[in-house]
Amino acid sequence: MANANADKAFNYNLDYRSLNLREHPELYRVGKGEQGVLLVEPYKSEILPYWKFKTPEIARESSEKIYELFLSYKGNGDFIGMDMARKFLQMGYTRSRRYANHRTGQKYDGPVPADQKGRSGAHGRDQLPRDEDPVKAESARIFYGKYLQAREDADYKRMKKEWQEKYG
C-alpha cells in the first residue's frame, strides 16, 4: 500500500496548464504550505493579479482583496478557492519576508540546479547574508495577519478536514 503521506502531497505531475481544478476538484491536493500556488487554475489567474507587496500600502490593499476572494470562495462553498487564497496570503508573507531579508530577493548563492527548479530549498547552495528592509518587513507583517485570519477560519479548518477525509 502507498505511503499515506504521499497520497496527501501536492501532485506536480498533473498538466496544470490545461487542467481546470474547478471542473476536476477531486484532483486537488492541499500539500504543504504554498505548494501549487502558481499552478492551480482557474484560481491562480483569479488571485495572482491582486498579489503585490512592494510597499505596506500596496500589501494592505492586496492582502485585503485576496482575503475578500477567500471569503467569496467560502460563501460559494469552494474549498479549493479558499485554500488557494490562503496560499497566496502565505506567499505574500514569505516573499515580502524574503525581500525584507535580501534586497535582491535571492536567498541562496548560485543558480537553482535544473532538476530542482520550481521546488523550494537551498539544494546545497549557501544562504546569502541578510539585510533588513523595514518597508518589506511591514508588508510581510500585513500579509501575515491576513494569512492567519484565513488559516484560522473555523469554516476553512472544517472544510479542509472534510476535503482531506474525502480526497486524501
Automatic annotation (TrEMBL):
Record field: compositional bias (Basic and acidic residues): 123-136
Name this polypeptide is given: Cytoplasmic protein
Protein source organism: Fibrisoma limi BUZ 3
InterPro entries: DUF4385
Region (Disordered): 100-136
